[in-house]
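Tokens for T9SS type A sorting domain-containing protein. Go.
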Amino acid sequence: MKTLYLLAIALGSSVAAQTITFNGCHNLFDNQNFVFTKTGVDANNKNIYITTPVDGQPCGGLGTCEFKIKWNNTLTRWEFLADEGNGTFTTPTLIYYNSTGNNTSPRPPSNTFGTWIENAVPTGTAGQCGGNLTGINSTMTGDVHSSPLATTDVTKSKIQIFPNPVSDVIHISGIDNGQTIQIYNVDGRLVKSDAFDQKIDISSLSAGVYVLKITTKNFESHEFKFVKK
């Protein structure tokens, strides 16, 4: 039996449920999807995701898989943790970490944004995961981001949202293959989800700061911060 847990991130879950799915590190874990569900928000308004332990779930011979993705504010990075064996996460094992420099997002980066670095020391994976996460050796989908937020994203693309601040309707320009839109509040909670449209009615939202996520038909995503007056 292997002696450590790994969090396989294959994000392919319902956005409404705010889940992340992971698949990777097959040298330690079976080639399967592991689903993380948002369980709360920390003191820094970062989402916390934990797998639901399932007895007998194949996990490289471990039986019950218990993993967590959370923000480490001291080291300013997202961490992928494995439980020590009883679901308390009091002395977890660090498997991967990602320091993108994007400290404003309440959601972790995908496996193709920044670099999820394997903690290959003996107290981590001991190098058994085969290196850092990439789009080739892993999948990570769901409640993650794959681009910088707000002005950085705006300057890198021709896509624009206006007006900002906005009272009733957001207009989107510069995109012709949009598929869906999601709007999250500052706590990372999904408050609106709909098919893509160049005009989005946000009149029912309370005043505050939000993140608009646009997903295209070829699965690219673009994120913009806006203020609702």
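Confidence is low (pLDDT under 50) at residues 1-16, 54-58, 149-156.
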